[in-house]
Amino acid sequence: MESLSNVDVSDEEEEITADIVLKTLQTAWQNECLAPEILPHNNDMVECMLGQIQHMERNINKLPKTDIRASIHKMELSRIKFIICNYLRTRLNKIEKYCISILNDERQRMETGTNYLTVGEFKYAQEYLLNMETHLKNVVLDKMPGNMKTLEMNKMAVYPNLQTHVFLKANSTISGVVLEDLVGDQDEEIDLEEGSQHILQYKPIADLVKNGKVQLV
Amino acid sequence: MFAEKVIELLKESERNPDTIDPFKDEKIRQILEEMQTLFIMNMNDANATTENKSLWTTVQVRHSALERNKRCLLAYLYSRMEKIKTLRWEFGSVLPPDVRELLSDDEYEWFSRYSTNLASYMRSLGQDIGYSGIDLTENLRPPKALYMEVVCTTDYGKLELSDGDVVMLRRNSRHFLPAAECQTLVRQGVLKQIV
Amino acid sequence: MSCSNYLSITDILVSHEKVPCKFFYDLPKMGFLDPSAVDDDLKAGTNTEIPLWLAESLHSRRPPLLSVDLPKIYKDAYREILNADACTVDLYKLGQHFYELGCYVAKYDIKGDVTNTLINTFKQRFRMLLTASASNDSIGSMQPLSGSERKFAAAAAVTENAISMWLQRGDCALKTANMVANHRKRKRAEMEMF
C-alpha cells in the first residue's frame, strides 16, 4: 500500500490509518470467505474505506488523464473495490443461504447488542425471507390440502456445517483450546503458539476467529 | 408408487444445472391433484378407523407420501429460485424476453422483488458517509489491468464513458476500454474479451 | 450432520433409492407397494422394497411399522469385495449414491460393519479420485466413480486448472510492467479511435 501515501502527502497520520483499515478489511474478507458461518460485520471499516476511495478518486481526477500516476492509483482503487465488493457479496451469499437460522440467531444477538449483521443486511435478510415465503405460498402451499399448507421454517432452515475443517494461523499464543471428541468422550486440549499454523475443526476455534486471536488462511 | 411424478420433475431440472427450464405448471398441477386425492382418501379412511383399526397404518403411509410430495415441490421451487437469483446477478435487473418466458408469472414477481431488495441494499451501502452505494454485481473478478481489449458481438449502440468520451459499439467492432466500465457488458455477453 | 437437507435435491434423490423392508402390520389398500402381491391389501410379514423416505418415515413411528434391511450392496458379499479392493468396483453402476445411501442405512446395521466399509472404501479410493481429477482422459477415469465422487473430481479439476492459470499469469509479467504496457497500448488505441 505504499502508493496510498502518494495520493495524499500532506497528511501523514491519515495514511497509517488507511493502511490499517485496509489490512483489517483484508483479514475480515479472508476470514469471511473461509469461515462456514457468518461473522460479525466490519461496517466501520467498510465505510471508512469507502470514504477513502471517494477521497482518492477526487485526487485522481485532478491529475491529467495520461499521467502514469493516475493509472496506478486507479488500478489500486479497483483492487480495493474488488475486496469490498467480494467481502459484502460473500456475506450476502451466506445471509441468503442460511437466512432462517441467521435471522433467528440475530434476533437473540440484538437483545444483547452483539449483532453480527449491519442494519442494511438485517433488513435485506428479512425482506428476502418474506419474499421467499410469499412465493412458496402463492405457488404451491396455498393449493395444498388442509394440513399441508404450513411452511415449516424449522425444517426448511439450512445450517452452516461448523464441523468442517479450516486452515488457521494464530495471531497470539492461546492456551487451552478444547477439541471435542465427537465419538468418544476424550476431549483433547491443545495450545496454539503465536504465528503457528494448524488445520482444525472450525467449531472449537470459532470464537477465536471472531475476536481476532486467530485468522483463517 | 407415490411421489413418482415429482421425482421426474426434479430429475429433469437436475439434468441442466446451468440453465433454467420452462416452469412446469401442468406437472405441478398434477402433483397437487395427487396430493388432494391422497388427502381425501385419508380423511375417509381416518373416519372409518373406528370399525377397522388397521386402517390407521394405511393413513400413516399416505401421510408420509403427502409430506414427501410437499418436500419435493418446495425443493423444486427453491432450486429454481436459486437459479433465478443467478439470473439477476448475471443478466442484471432486466431479463431478455426469451429468458423471461421461462419463468412463471409468480416467479417473475419473485425476481422483481429480489431485484428490488438487492438494489435497495446496494444503494444503502455507505449512505451514512454520503456515498451513493456500490454495485456489487460489478468487480466480480480481481482486476488484472485497467483496460481490456474487447470485441462487440451485437449492434449495441453508444456507450458513454465516465470521462465523457462516447464509443460506438457495432457488431464485430474492436475496442480498448476501461475494464471497470465494460465488465458488466462483458458479463452480459455484449462484449467479448480478447486475450 | 448439523446442516438440514430438506431442500436438497441430491438428498431427495438419495432417499428415492429402494431398500428392503419387512412390514409388521397389515396395510389395507396398500398392496401395490409389493409388486408381487395380488391382493389389494398388504399383509403383515410381507417383505418388499420401498423407497428409503417411506421406509424411514414408517420406521420412525411408535411403534415402528416395519423393519429396514440392508440393500444388497451393503451386505456381506459386497462388503468383502469392497474391503478387499474397492478400486476395482464400478461404484456408479453399483449405486450412484453409494456413500450417501450408505450413511442412511448404516444405522440399521448394529454391528457397525457398514460404517467401517464406507470409510474403508473411501480411503482406498481416494488416490483413484486424485488421479481421476488430474487426468486428461476424463471420460475413461470418471466412469467408475459414484455420483458424488464425480462431483469431487470435477471440482478438483476446476481448482487444479485455476491454480495453473494463476501460476502462469503470475509468471508472465510484473504488475507495473503490465500496467505500463497497457498504458502504451491504450495510447495506441486512443489514437486509433480518433
From TrEMBL, chain A:
It is found in: Nucleus. Residues 52-139 form the GINS subunit domain. Gene3D superfamilies: 1.20.58.1030, 3.40.5.60. Residues 160-217 form the DNA replication complex GINS protein SLD5 C-terminal domain. Signal peptide: none annotated. The keyword Nucleus applies. Its main location: nucleus. GO terms for biological process: DNA-templated DNA replication; double-strand break repair via break-induced replication. Keywords: DNA replication, Nucleus. One of its GO terms (cellular component) is GINS complex. InterPro entries: GINS_A (IPR021151), GINS_bundle-like_dom_sf (IPR036224), GINS_Sld5 (IPR008591), SLD5_C (IPR031633), Sld5_GINS_A (IPR038749). The keyword Aminoacyl-tRNA synthetase does not apply. CDD domains: GINS_A_Sld5 (cd11711), GINS_B_Sld5 (cd21692). It comes from the Eukaryota. Belongs to the GINS4/SLD5 family. The GINS complex plays an essential role in the initiation of DNA replication. This is DNA replication complex GINS protein SLD5. It comes from Diatraea saccharalis (sugarcane borer).
From TrEMBL, chain B:
The keyword Nucleus applies. Keywords: DNA replication, Nucleus. GO terms for cellular component: GINS complex. InterPro entries: GINS_A, GINS_bundle-like_dom_sf, GINS_Psf1, PSF1_C. It is found in: Nucleus. Residues 45-125 form the GINS subunit domain. The keyword Metal-binding does not apply. Pfam families: PSF1_C, Sld5. GO terms for biological process: DNA strand elongation involved in mitotic DNA replication. Residues 144-194 form the DNA replication complex GINS protein PSF1 C-terminal domain. Required for correct functioning of the GINS complex, a complex that plays an essential role in the initiation of DNA replication, and progression of DNA replication forks. GINS complex seems to bind preferentially to single-stranded DNA. Component of the GINS complex. Belongs to the GINS1/PSF1 family. This is DNA replication complex GINS protein PSF1.
Automatic annotation (TrEMBL), chain C:
CDD domains: GINS_A_psf3, GINS_B_Psf3. The keyword Transcription regulation does not apply. GO terms for cellular component: GINS complex. GO terms for biological process: mitotic DNA replication initiation. Keywords: DNA replication, Nucleus. InterPro entries: GINS_bundle-like_dom_sf (IPR036224), GINS_Psf3 (IPR010492), GINS_Psf3_sf (IPR038437), PSF3_N (IPR055221). Coiled coil: none annotated. It comes from the Eukaryota. Residues 8-58 form the DNA replication complex GINS protein PSF3 N-terminal domain. Its main location: nucleus. The keyword Aminoacyl-tRNA synthetase does not apply. It is found in: Nucleus. The GINS complex plays an essential role in the initiation of DNA replication. Belongs to the GINS3/PSF3 family. Component of the GINS complex. This is DNA replication complex GINS protein PSF3. It comes from Diatraea saccharalis. The lineage of its organism: Eukaryota, Metazoa, Ecdysozoa, Arthropoda, Hexapoda.
